[in-house]
Design goal:
Layout lengths: L8 H13 L2 H8 L3 H15 L4 E4 L2 E4 L1 H28 L4 E7 L1 H18 L3 E7 L2 H10 L4 E7 L10 E16 L17 E4 L5 H12 L5 E5 L3 H9 L5 E4 L10 E5 L6 E9 H4 L2 H15 L2
Parallel strand pairs: 3-4, 3-5, 7-8
Antiparallel strand pairs: 1-2, 5-11, 6-9, 6-10, 6-11
Helix pairs in contact: 1-2, 1-3, 1-4, 2-3, 5-10
Length: about 300
């Protein structure tokens, strides 16, 4: 590569996608290209830079040291271009185009749904798409550029590590509620320790809610006797209604209109879940993304 050779932005984007996806095929799908086209463009970029940018193996590809350095610069370039696009949108008064949101299920079915309907009514040119995803997956989609906003949750006892270079906007904080069958005769203001001898219905260990509740039980001095495990909140609520045990779940996750359960707020400890909208700083400056973020905040406050 000569000192004055220009680097093509499209090929830099391609290199970044290879690093994020971990394969030529994954980058091709993300970019709407064929794998052979990605390989050809990568070969051109390696020729332009005079460096090997990827290491190939039967399991996929990884960026070389030089490839990682160049991909990091590509990320910076793409952020600058996104900020320039946002400047143009603001200057033109543009509020439209695609905005993609990944959200945890309970948020998607409640205030995200309300916000989406309001935006569709007020801004016909806005093309909003919502994907339901757990926080780790939602953040992966955000960092890969597959979504513009991620609505994630964080529980007491289970801190959520956010990536660098993102902006987080708090949307909603809610208590975790004790969910019992109708007619349950326990304390009106129960403490977690009061439930030491109960059968339990819970999300799995690897789910933040399941880990948070198990950690709180252990802090209260007992190991919960878990009888039913599911990552489907409706399954959990119906299992409680059927008498398989009690549960402690976020209020937005409890479809008490779909099963015969009753809710009581825990007295000690008071467990909390926090819902947050996360975006890349360059993306959040786009008027359409900022409008969606504001609509989410408004809808969450109205809960």
């Amino acid at each position: 590569m000569t000192n004055d050779a220009a680097l093509d932005v499209g090929r830099l984007r391609l290199l970044r996608e290879i690093g994020v996806r971990g394969s030529i095929a994954g980058a091709a799908r993300a970019l709407g290209l064929t794998p052979s086209a990605v390989s050809q463009q990568l070969a051109v970029l390696e020729r332009d830079t005079g460096a090997s940018l990827v290491d190939r193996s039967p399991r996929g590809v990884v960026l070389t040291g030089t490839g990682r350095l160049l991909a990091a610069r590509a990320e910076e370039v793409l952020d600058v271009l996104a900020a320039a696009r946002a400047d143009l949108d603001r200057a033109n008064g543009t509020l439209g185009g695609p905005v993609r949101v990944a959200a945890v299920a309970s948020a998607a079915l409640t205030f995200v749904s309300v916000a989406a309907l309001a935006l569709a009514s007020e801004h016909a040119a806005l093309d909003l798409a919502v994907t339901v995803a757990e926080p780790s997956r939602a953040l992966e989609l955000l960092l890969a550029g597959d979504v513009d906003l991620a609505v994630v949750d964080e529980y007491d006892y289970v801190p959520l590590a956010l990536p660098e270079h993102v902006v987080a906007v708090g949307l909603h904080a809610e208590p975790l509620m004790l969910v019992t069958p109708k007619g349950w005769c326990g304390p009106r203001h129960p403490a977690l320790a009061d439930l030491a001898d109960a059968d339990w219905v819970m999300p799995p260990d690897e789910a933040s809610c399941g880990l948070a509740v198990r950690s709180a039980c252990r802090a209260a001095g007992f190991e919960p006797r878990v009888r039913w495990v599911s990552d489907d909140m409706l399954v959990l609520v119906r299992a409680v209604a059927a008498g398989h045990g009690v549960a402690v779940l976020p209020r937005l996750s409890v479809a008490d209109d779909a099963a015969a359960v009753q809710l009581r707020r825990l007295h000690e400890p008071e467990l909390t879940r926090r819902l947050t909208a996360v975006a890349r700083a360059s993306t959040l400056t786009r008027p359409s993304v900022a409008a969606v973020s504001a609509a989410l905040a408004d809808a969450a406050r109205a809960r």
